[in-house]
Design a protein that fits this description.
2 domains, alpha/beta, 19 helices, binds iron/sulfur cluster, six-stranded parallel β-sheet, 514 residues, Rossmann fold, pyruvate-formate lyase- activating enzyme, binds cobalamin
């Protein structure tokens, strides 16, 4: 059986460029490892390159984040018309299976470990079911991902997932929408994955220095500090250098930073999010501490660990004045240049989304489509400043933050400290990051739902891919979230919780009365 696993991508910068950055979706190698051996598997990372439209498959697994959903259902339609059965999994599939069902032969809710092989077996026997639900995560059942197929597609091919979920429940986070859970794999299995991955890379002729670089794809590698320390100690004898996403409390802990460096850590990504206490309180992220950002960044660098961080601006609690002050906050904190500044976005299904839907005041912008929920297009009405002033301040701040002068200032601050510790890998990453980072929006970007440039990606449909003009319009039109007056469409009000104590519960956000 010919099986494709497609990780779908829509460029949120609206350039239509495929993305070749450090982070690539890892679902393909995991699903490939879960498929029975009679499957002939092809992994397609749409972030890197378009699917080969001339191919045909028996079964296609698709994965997407919310903003990529239109492209996922169009790719599904394309391959269904060429004989494939299609299966969607991921966050959108898990929280809104009822909205996904019309566009795929099957929808998988939850984890792939106990569902993918079932779906493949059923497809082989011609009895694919419309819905599969995972029964719960078993850390020992996670197989070694088949990274050998993507070694040429990734800047950092040795990618590993050691945990699932996150113990926190920040209210804008897509994980909180699924339900809070935090699952740990046995440390020995993580070591096994790294060593097996290294052997696969060696067999594929990957350079030895790259075989020492491990990227952990976890949402929060240090959600359980006892387990995390154990992991660090197990990594030490492997002589690898690694990076991971984790939370602020870790970089605020100097002893832990020392241990991490000794055990190979060279870079961490931390969601610093904001310098505005009102926004921090609103997003329910108590693990961050604005007053200690500068100190935490400084001690991380002194211990040889580069801090890469993202910021959000909140349309609810941040005004134009605060946004204009961001470059100064960044300079004072020593972060200088974040890897992104995006809009706090109510991803459908999150508590933040439900709060915005239920608000007494009209919160959403009109004519917002799902592709706008990428965090780089504003979908909420700013509450403290007029819309154009808010967006004007955003553009202005972005131009200042990403100016070459500031990128150089960051390097001038980071490099001597990292070098003093002998952390040359971190230096190389910092220089590479600052070389590639800029703010260069395509012409016509308004950054505002309803008026922003459309996503330029296309699926090359033929005329006979549709039964009628109405059918073509249904497949090719975007998925709307708000109507022309900014009201969230009723279809989005009810969504499912998948994990945690309230798993299986349907949450209903009550819309304000018109
Ligand atoms: C790599 C990555 C990216 C890459 C690729 C995105 C992608 N398509 O995966 C890039 C750089 C493009 C990216 C960008 C952004 N990302 Co990102 N990213 C990640 C990251 C670090 C790893 C994803 C991954 O490979 N995970 C490992 C694989 C194995 O698991 P998974 O993809 O999470 O899938 C799980 C389930 O959903 C399910 N599943 C998923 N697909 C399928 C398919 C099938 C068939 C089945 C059965 C199951 C299944 O199985 C997995 C295990 O449970 C995650 C964090 C994380 N650890 O997941 C964030 C994450 C996906 N990103 C997120 C965010 C917020 C962003 C940004 C908005 C950040 C920003 N401000 O710039 C942007 C914009 C994204 C957009 N277009 O809207 C959020 C979720 C967004 C969403 N809408 O759901 C996440 C979850 C981080 C977080 N905790 O907030 N990101
Ligand atoms: S700490 Fe990060 S991954 Fe965890 S809930 Fe908050 S935003 Fe999501």
């Amino acid at each position: 059986m010919r099986v494709a696993v497609i990780a779908v991508f829509t460029d949120y910068h609206r350039r239509g460029n495929h993305h070749r950055g450090g982070l690539q979706p890892q679902i393909g190698p995991l699903v490939a490892a879960l498929l029975p051996e009679w499957c002939e598997v092809e992994l397609i990372n749409d972030t890197w390159t378009d699917p080969d439209w001339s191919r045909s498959y028996d079964l296609v697994f698709l994965s997407c984040v919310h903003a990529d959903f239109d492209r996922a259902r169009q790719i599904s339609h394309y391959f269904r018309r060429r004989g494939a059965r299609t299966v969607l999994g991921g966050g959108m599939a898990s929280t809104y299976p009822q909205l996904c069902a019309p566009w795929f032969d099957a929808v998988i809710v939850g984890d792939p470990e106990d569902t993918v092989a079932r779906a493949a077996n059923d497809a082989r026997l011609g009895r694919l079911k419309p819905l599969y639900r995972s029964g719960g995560y078993v850390g020992t059942d996670v197989p070694v991902p088949r990274i050998e197929q993507v070694v040429r597609q990734q800047m950092f091919p040795l990618s590993v997932e050691a945990t699932r979920g996150c113990p926190y429940s920040c209210d804008f986070c897509a994980l909180t929408a699924l339900g809070t859970r935090h699952e740990l794999r046995p440390v020995a299995n993580v070591v096994r994955d790294i060593q097996t991955g290294q052997a696969a890379l060696k067999a594929a002729g990957v350079a030895s220095w790259k075989r020492r670089l491990v990227v952990f794809y976890d949402n929060n590698l240090a959600g359980n500090l006892k387990w995390f320390r154990e992991l660090c100690l197990a990594l030490k004898p492997l002589d690898v250098q690694w990076g991971a996403c984790l939370t602020f409390n870790v970089i605020a802990n100097r002893e832990l930073l020392k241990l991490m460096y000794e055990c190979g850590c060279r870079a961490v990504f931390v969601g610093l999010e904001t310098f505005n206490p009102a926004t921090l309180a609103d997003i329910s992220k108590p693990q961050n501490n604005i007053g200690k950002i500068g100190e935490a960044i400084e001690q991380s660098r002194d211990e040889g660990i580069l801090v890469i961080a993202g910021l959000i601006v909140s349309p609810v609690h941040d005004g134009a004045h605060y946004i204009r002050s961001l470059p100064d906050h960044l300079a004072r904190s020593g972060l200088h240049v974040p890897s992104f500044v995006s809009f706090e976005t109510p991803i459908p299904g999150t508590p933040f989304f439900d709060r915005m839907v239920s608000s007494e005041r009209p919160m959403f912008l009109p004519n917002a489509n799902l592709y706008d929920f990428s965090a780089y297009t504003l979908v909420l009405q700013p509450q403290l400043s007029p819309l154009d002033e808010f967006l004007g301040a955003y553009r202005e701040a972005m131009q200042r933050i990403y100016a070459p002068r500031r990128r150089l200032a960051k390097l001038a601050d980071d490099v001597p400290r990292l070098a003093r510790r002998g952390s040359w890998t971190a230096v190389a990453m910092d220089v590479g990051d600052m070389w590639m980072t800029d703010f260069n929006p395509v012409r016509g970007r308004s950054f505002m739902a309803g008026t922003d440039v459309l996503p330029p990606e296309r699926v090359p449909f033929a005329d006979d891919d549709f039964d009628s003009e109405a059918h073509r319009i249904a497949v090719c039109s975007p998925t709307p979230v708000t109507d022309e007056s900014g009201r969230v469409l009723a279809a989005w009000h009810a969504h499912d919780k998948v994990f945690g104590t309230d798993a299986g519960r349907r949450v209903i956000a009550l819309s304000r009365t018109p």
